[in-house]
Amino acid sequence: MSDFAARLTFANGKTLELHGPADITKETTEAIVNAANSSLLGGGGVDGAIHRAGGPSILQECKRIVAKIGTLPAGKAVITTGGRLPAKYVIHTVGPVYRGGQQREAETLASCYHESIRIADDHGIRSLAFPSISTGAFGYPVLGPLKSQFAPLSKLCRPAPM
Fold first, then answer.
1. Is 47 noted as a catalytic residue in this protein?
2. Residue 117 within a domain
C-alpha cells in the first residue's frame, strides 16, 4: 500500500489532515491515540508499539488509572503523558471486538473516536493522530472504521452555534 495524504479545510477554519500508512509512534502531533486493550498494560500491535516506544512512564500511569477506575470499557478513553514519544500525550481507547456487526460494534467504535476527540478538546490538544482502531487483533473489517471515524470528526468541524 502506498502513502497518501489529504487536507480538508472547513469554513470555520478547522483543518482535518489524513495521512497514511505511518508509524504512529513517530507522529509529531500533540497527542496520539492508542488502540488499547482494557487492561491498559500494553500488548501487541499499536498498543505494544506505543508502550515500547514511550517507555515505562506510560505503563506506570496506566497502572495508576486502572487502580483507580478498573479496566477501561470498550468505547471509553483516558489520557496519559507521552513518555519518550514525540507526542506529548497518549489517549488510550478500547475498541470493540468485531462479532459480525450485530452487537453494537459500530456504535462502540464511534464512541472510541468521539471520546478521544472529547478528551483532546478538554485538554486543549490541537493536533491528534489516530490509528485504525479495532482492525487488528479485534477483527474489525479494515474499511469499517471509516464511517465511525468521520461522524465524530464532522461534528467537531462544524461551526459553533451563534
1. yes
2. yes
